[in-house]
Amino acid sequence: MSLKPIEILLVEDNAADVRLTEEALREGKVRNNLHVARDGMEALEFLRRQGKYAKATRPDLILLDLNLPRRDGREVLAEIKDDPSLKMIPVVVLTTSSAEADILKSYKLHANCYITKPVDLEQFVSVVKSIDDFWLTVVRLPSELP
Which residues pair with 115 in a beta bridge? Predict the structure, then answer.
């Protein structure tokens, strides 16, 4: 197993959810560097290494909320999966919406999985830890993305 930490981009505008995700990942099994984008435009700038993100590290995994300011998660997901240089990055939709239309649209846009955030704090931490366990321990990610 590589000693290099896993790079994670969390696209989340809710500060409390960012803190909980940070805490859960800190307690996880895999070393990681968590980068946070607070809205959809910032996420795309990070991924495209534009402006202040010119030296940003390419993430190994993206945790994407759907309900974001400036550019919503559905638009961000569509742009990621339409971009040949980004489409191989696994995207986990992590959102409060349990609407069937959002689930269907996310999968049609090629989300790798869809998880509804639990409202309970303990369950939220448990969900993030399970993402850590599955995506960063069980799943084999490519070492180099195009």
Answer: 94
- DSSP helix/strand/coil, 137: helix
Please, are residues 37 and 65 in contact by the beta-carbon 8 Å criterion?
Answer: no
Each residue's pLDDT tens digit, 13-62? 999 999 989 988 887 777 889 999 999 999 999 999 999 999 999 999 99
Tokens coding 42: 């910032």
Enter the pTM of the model: 0.91
pLDDT number for residue 26: 84
The arrangement of strands across the sheet holding 32-37 comes to 32-37, 6-11, 61-64, 91-95, 113-116
Longest alpha-carbon distance in the chain: 40
**Vertex 53: Cα angle to 115 and 67 (nearest 5):** 30
C-beta of residue 11 within 8 angstroms of C-beta of residue 37? yes
Question: What type of residue is 108?
Answer: K
Reference 49, options 59, 38, 34, 39; nearest CA is 59
What does the DSSP 8-state code read for residue 12?
-
